[in-house]
Amino acid sequence: MNKWSKRMILACLTAIVVLTSACGDGTPSASDGGSKQPDPAATNQTETKTESESSAESKTETNTDTFDPFRMPEPIEVTTFKSVSAGAKLNAGETVEDNQYTKYIKDKTNISFNILWHASGPDFDQKSKLAISSGDIPDILFVNELTFLSLAEAGQIEDLTEVFEKYASPLTKELYASTNNRALDKAKYQGKLMAIPNISVQADAASLLWVRKDWMDKLGLKPPASADDIATIAKAFVEGDPDGNGKPDTIGLTGSDGALSVPGKAGHHNYKGLFMAYNAYPGNWIKDSSGSIVYGSILPETKQALGKIREWYAAGLIDKEFALRKDLNQPVIGGQAGMFFGPWWSGGMAADTMTNNPKAEFEPYLIPDANGQYNNLMVPVSNRFIVVKKGMKHPEAAVIYANTFIAAQRKADPDALKLDFTVSAEYWPIGNATFDYADAVERKSETLKKALAGEIKPEDLNPEMKQLYDNAVADKAIPKADLKVWRSFYGYTAPAELLKQPMNQVYSEFTATTKTMERKWENLQKLEKETFLKIVMGEKELDAFDQFVADWKAQGGDEITKEVQEEVSKLQK
Prior knowledge:
Layout: H1 3-12, H2 40-43, H3 49-57, E1 76-83, H4 100-109, E2 111-119, H5 121-133, E3 140-144, H6 145-153, H7 161-167, H8 170-177, H9 182-186, E4 188-189, E5 192-193, E6 196-197, E7 208-212, H10 213-219, H11 227-239, E8 251-253, H12 272-276, E9 285-287, E10 293-295, H13 300-314, H14 330-333, E11 337-342, H15 347-356, E12 362-365, E13 375-377, E14 384-388, H16 396-409, H17 440-452, H18 463-477, H19 483-490, H20 494-499, E15 504-506, H21 515-536, H22 544-572
Parallel strand pairs: 1-2, 8-11, 13-15
Antiparallel strand pairs: 3-14, 4-5, 6-14, 7-11, 7-12, 9-10
Helix pairs in contact: 1-6, 15-19, 17-18, 18-19, 21-22
């Protein structure tokens, strides 16, 4: 092992994260109000009974003369260690080592997991550091991207190229195909498949503008079709007394936390949707017009977007108190704010608003750029990886485990319906992550639409889709009589339809960490957030952005950019 490899492994120790439900990437659903991340195994399923049953039957259709992709021919024991957060729900009489999930995996796969140890928080981090630094990793482990890359470079994990191709089930391959194989590419190192990656639902990338339609109707406003239209509507909301109380107490657009945060998933009050309208991608490593990888926060497009937000804040179109608020949802739910940026599953917040004011009505919109194009910075298709220790006798066990976990998550295995998914998914043998179709939301939307149109028989729907269908039918009979019913399916209607629009999909080219990032990124992030916030609030002139760029470059940004470019080049070889 060369010095660089050793240094990378030691550097990554502070960031190692074995996947748990606390750090999982489960997709929020319209039924949870957008307030938490549910267990994907409890919320996501294949579309119809026919598809589920055919996936389950595929167990016996794939080279059954030589092997079963869902079961080891003989019982084996596999070691791992894991993080379990304090308070994670577990049924009485069960333990981390012996519970419904570990039993399910053992019964289905012939694989017994020997959990060497488990811990939470700082204790887990410390024990992980010691284990990795000594090379004492277990047979199978779920890790983050930084740890995966470091272990791959150090030669400590198995090449899974052949066993994946041989053992991956049809459903597993189908899920990866939905990513255009981007997920598998993320798990490759020097052209070899060195891990089994999770699959994130791409709908979580889109940032929609949610607008009080009842206010627009009252004031005779047209729906927003550009960034400038947002300002027009916000001004009318502030000055036009849309709530009819005779007081100047309404807010046009909610503020944003995290200094106008953009990276990753589209959360509530994240201005990602506005930045996209200016072709700005702060916080992400993207390709510029020449094909070079650059940091989006230092580009002219980001300055332009900041200038517009600064202008709106100065004009009183944005919540003046946003920087002081502990709860940015409150102005919306309380009926004070007329617009906010949020993801497709924001029907939960809309329902909470309607609980307080039954006349409230929201409509979501995508905001195009000046050329009428919808830009969407996609979420990383994968950010968690199943890795196998170099030299493990049966590396195919990892693929068999993945096949079985996916079959349970997607409800392709009828036996999975017997599991109690209120038990924390952290208790699966190696933790929890989403393995779903990249376009899962759009698929479910189409299934629901076809069922409501009579193109799919209700009895052919799987349990989840049947429930969504029943709720939609009940709501049609008596609209919004039960907001819990309405919020459960609404995200798969109008919001999901927007996601089907043609979009310019932009991907972050680098989502790991370099050696200089380990030392300097925290300070650079602080510089960025403080500068952006002060520009927006008028404490600094817009041209302070130029000084920020110069300082960012001088304080390590140029060095980091060079490292990122080198790392991407190395991974592509």
